């Protein structure tokens, strides 16, 4: 029998993205070494499980309905050297502390998603970087090449994909162990303390919230006459930009008892603004995986583009499947966001909206640092809430770049960091992150705004 051949658009498989224009891909000089590394990667165990992926999708579906608030945060780019116990536990702590502030202040359960355990690939605006007349390939994240400005470091090395998998697994293993061991136990919020933060201008307010929460837990336990279960467990999910498609493909797997292909390198793969073209390789890849997926939406995106992305990425209007992460910038969000919200509301299909208050607010200082002002980040979050409310849509959460370390990369905040402070502890190899205090302050600002 002669079966009609399927149109290309329907013939998805984990490698079908290779038929489309793939932006932001490194050029590996040794094709054989690349195939060898991918072969090994394809045999290694995955980093997350299908049932975790499905439970996150369910939680995101609840966030779409306003029953949960999403906190997605972490480094712009992780690097292998920072795969250390203190850095990981501090990052987990700040996310848990922020979520505690949000749960308490918004009276809503929070979905916690760390941009971690795999956030190793970065899109770049130029393929080459030139310094003092020397041109080398741009740094594309530790999964691709090294940040040092030397020819050797900048050659894309496929072995780095295996290292990225190993570092993600070590990070994941430690996070899971901390959470299983009671690190997130709500009966012991004092475990969530970060030593140096006691000197913070935000410390008193945070302590009051911790005390209030502890008091309400005691009250509930008294009422029920027994310890409340589930308080000692915090669900925690991971996300990263699904940029390096050969890596993602090698970790795209079938599992027993569930239909479809899962990306098991992370719970929540998202694609950035530069690779969100409808006919591009990244959209083709994400189209076929079962995971919940996110797409960054910048100020140049038109309503029609979003509707066509929904056609391709969520044709059956599945709850929890599709998240749009808008990243407009505090100065333009008032103009750019409402037409998108209106069009999607009129269309009626389900999406979850998150606000990335970082990437539209990046600027360079006179002394050459890439920075962001706390006031602009805060303003973009506040405007997002207001604009959604005005259009009858819902802001379901925030997407932030932050660290649990005491860095000085963004200016402003309660400690009023200035451009001069940036010289003191600027550590990011890519984008500037909120430090511990600024991140906690932003969580409190969100709560204040909701109560104003
Ligand atoms: C990022 O989230 O680090 C990023 C590069 O975002 P965007 O694609 O929105 O610029
Ligand atoms: Mn970034």
Automatic annotation (TrEMBL):
Its EC number(s): 2.5.1.54
GO molecular function terms listed in the Swiss-Prot or TrEMBL record: 3-deoxy-7-phosphoheptulonate synthase activity
Single biological process term from Gene Ontology: aromatic amino acid family biosynthetic process
Keywords attached to this entry: Cadmium, Cobalt, Manganese, Transferase
A Pfam family this chain is assigned to: DAHP_synth_2
Cofactor: Mn(2+); Co(2+); Cd(2+)
Record-listed phosphoenolpyruvate binding positions: 115, 296, 327
Cofactor comment text: Binds 1 divalent cation per subunit. The enzyme is active with manganese, cobalt or cadmium ions.
Record has Manganese as a keyword: yes
Catalytic activity as recorded in UniProt: D-erythrose 4-phosphate + phosphoenolpyruvate + H2O = 7-phospho-2-dehydro-3-deoxy-D-arabino-heptonate + phosphate
Domain of life: Bacteria
The UniProt record lists the keyword Cell cycle: no
InterPro entries: Aldolase_TIM, DAHP_synth_2
Residues binding Mn(2+), per UniProt: 76, 359, 401, 431
Enzyme class: transferase
Family, similarity comment: Belongs to the class-II DAHP synthase family.
NCBIfam families referenced in this protein's UniProt entry, alphabetically: DAHP_synth_II
The name this protein goes by in its record: Phospho-2-dehydro-3-deoxyheptonate aldolase
């Amino acid at each position: 029998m002669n079966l009609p051949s399927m149109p290309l658009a329907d013939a998805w498989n984990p490698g079908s993205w290779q038929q489309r224009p793939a932006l932001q891909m490194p050029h590996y000089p040794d094709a054989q070494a690349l195939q060898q590394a991918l072969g090994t990667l394809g045999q290694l165990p995955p980093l997350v499980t299908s049932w975790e992926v499905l439970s996150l999708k369910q939680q995101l579906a609840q966030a779409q309905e306003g029953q949960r608030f999403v906190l997605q945060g972490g480094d712009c780019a992780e690097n292998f050297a920072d795969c250390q116990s203190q850095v990981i536990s501090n990052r987990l702590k700040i996310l848990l502390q922020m979520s505690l502030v949000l749960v308490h202040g918004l009276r809503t359960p929070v979905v916690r998603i760390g941009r971690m355990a795999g956030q190793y690939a970065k899109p770049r605006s130029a393929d080459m970087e030139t310094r003092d007349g020397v041109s080398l390939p741009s740094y594309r994240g530790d999964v691709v090449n090294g940040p040092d400005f030397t020819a050797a470091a900048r050659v894309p090395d496929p072995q780095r994909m295996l290292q990225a998998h190993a570092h993600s697994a070590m990070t994941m293993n430690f996070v899971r162990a901390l959470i299983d061991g009671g690190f997130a136990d709500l009966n012991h919020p004092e475990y969530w303390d970060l030593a140096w933060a006691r000197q913070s201008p935000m410390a008193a307010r945070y302590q009051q919230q911790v005390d209030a929460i502890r008091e309400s837990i005691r009250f509930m336990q008294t009422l029920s006459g027994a310890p409340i279960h589930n308080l000692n467990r915090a669900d925690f999910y991971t996300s990263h930009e699904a940029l390096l498609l050969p890596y993602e493909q090698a970790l795209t797997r079938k599992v027993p008892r569930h239909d479809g292909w899962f990306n098991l390198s992370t719970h929540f793969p998202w694609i950035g603004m530069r690779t969100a073209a409808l006919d591009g390789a990244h959209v083709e890849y994400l189209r076929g995986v079962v995971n919940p997926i996110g797409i960054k939406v910048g100020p140049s995106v038109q309503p029609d583009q979003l509707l066509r992305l929904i056609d391709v990425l969520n044709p059956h209007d599945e709850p929890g499947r599709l998240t749009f992460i808008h990243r407009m910038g505090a100065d333009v969000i008032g103009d750019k966001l409402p037409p998108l919200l209106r069009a999607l509301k009129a269309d009626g299909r389900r999406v979850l909206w998150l606000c990335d208050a970082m990437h539209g607010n990046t600027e360079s200082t006179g002394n050459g640092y890439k920075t962001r002002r706390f006031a602009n980040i805060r303003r973009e979050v506040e405007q997002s809430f207001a604009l959604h409310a005005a259009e009858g849509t819902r802001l379901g959460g925030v997407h932030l770049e932050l660290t649990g370390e005491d860095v000085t990369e963004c200016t402003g905040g309660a400690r009023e960091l200035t451009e001069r402070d940036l010289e003191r502890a600027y550590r990011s190899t890519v984008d500037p992150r909120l430090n511990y205090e600024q991140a906690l302050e932003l969580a409190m600002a969100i709560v204040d705004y909701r109560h104003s």
